[in-house]
Write a structure and sequence with these properties.
single chain; alpha/beta; sialyltransferase cstii, chain A; nine-stranded mixed sheet; two-stranded antiparallel ribbon; 12 helices; 34% helix
Length: 364
């Protein structure tokens, strides 16, 4: 076997076989050749003896640059893969919303008996989806002052499932709003209000299912958001308590429905969805028939001299309902769009069995 310690041909010009060996291979290479920086063997174009070649400084520099480029490419591919995995893990709202059925609120409910899985709601703390049977009839009770003097308590309690919102109490208002609470939909900002009377809402009502909605750092499960930590503490205090949260995917879905129904991006239009919006979305999933109590139409406050009604039936003399609705509707940012939402509910009532009671009005 012959060796040539120098004179490595240009790789682009020569026709060479596979690399056989790198520096320090024990193949009988002369000691002088082993002292070179980079050495390797190639079989000649005619398939003869193996010949030792060395890299010139220019070739070594080019090889180094190629190696760095390859390393950068691998790093970029790895970071891209990690980013995609993190997106899927974190359920990025804007991306995941497009994967959901855009017409879920108006889709017919399954008729098969037995419990169903509702993946848009996850339990605290184990993150399992909500599993329950559909409600044949639901009473969605508004917190509006319209409920005062209604005398509809017994009728409301006659529904199979009763849905209430935030901290709206039943104690002392049973004649007008009933006393049963099957589900209570709560804004993350209202959780502290319920904690002021936690024995009433949680200790004495452990048969109620609580579904909390919210976005941002306060509801973050992985990072232990403030509101989520509070919910964890509640489940430890009352092990039988049923607490669920809207998933990030479901929150994004609710934003998507708002945009499809109104033509406005919720964030860009400065809108905050109300607890009533999330309650109606939940009711459309869980209920076969829905009666909404105490919710006015979208045109109610524009009528001549609407009666002055408290914004909440349990907060008399504080805020006027129509004044609050109009104030939020006209605010440029960080406001609920109560009137816009009611117009959407009216359209849904044309396609789903939804009835509005006290005040009673028909969908337009």
């Amino acid at each position: 076997m012959g060796f040539t310690p120098s004179g490595c041909p240009d790789l682009e010009e020569g026709i060479w076989g596979d690399i056989c060996s790198f520096k320090d291979q024990e193949l009988g290479v002369p000691e002088k050749a082993l002292s070179m920086e980079i050495e390797f063997y190639r079989r000649g174009p005619t398939g003869g003896d193996w010949v030792l070649h060395t890299r010139t400084p220019q070739a070594r520099h080019r090889l180094l640059l190629q190696g760095r480029l390859l390393l950068l490419s691998l790093c970029a591919l790895t970071l891209s893969a990690v980013y995609i995995c993190l997106c899927c893990w974190a359920c990025m709202p804007l991306c995941l919303a497009t994967c959901l059925d855009p017409h879920l609120p108006l889709a017919p409910r399954p008729t098969e008996p037995g419990p169903l899985h509702f993946s848009g709601y996850s339990s605290v703390p184990d993150g399992k989806p909500l599993v329950r049977e559909l409600c044949r009839s639901c009473a969605v009770v508004s917190s509006s002052g319209q409920m005062l003097g209604s005398g509809l308590g017994a009728q409301i309690d006659g529904a199979e499932c009763v849905l209430r919102m935030n901290q709206a109490p039943t104690l002392g208002f049973e004649e007008d709003v009933g006393q049963r609470s099957t589900l209570r939909v709560i804004s993350h900002t209202s959780v502290p209000l319920l904690l002021r009377n936690y024995s009433h809402y949680f200790q004495q009502a452990q048969d109620t299912l609580y579904v909390v909605w919210g976005q941002g750092r306060h509801m973050d499960r992985m990072l232990g958001g403030r509101t989520y930590r509070t919910l964890l503490q509640l489940t430890r205090m009352y092990p039988g308590l049923q607490v669920y949260t809207f998933t990030e995917r479901m929150m994004a879905y609710c934003d998507q429905i708002f945009q499809e129904e109104t033509g406005k991006n919720r964030r860009q239009s400065g809108s905050f969805l109300s607890t009533g919006w999330f309650t109606m979305i939940l009711a459309l999933e869980l209920c076969e028939e829905i009666v909404v109590y105490g919710m006015v139409s979208d045109s109610y406050c524009s009528e001549k001299s609407p009666p002055s009604v408290p914004y909440h039936y349990f907060e008399k003399g504080r805020l006027d309902e129509c004044q609050m609705y109009l104030l939020h509707e006209q605010a440029p940012r960080s406001a609920h769009r109560f009137i816009t939402e009611k117009a959407v509910f009216s359209r849904w009532a044309k396609k789903r069995p939804i009835v509005f009671a006290h005040p009673s009005w028909r969908a337009k």
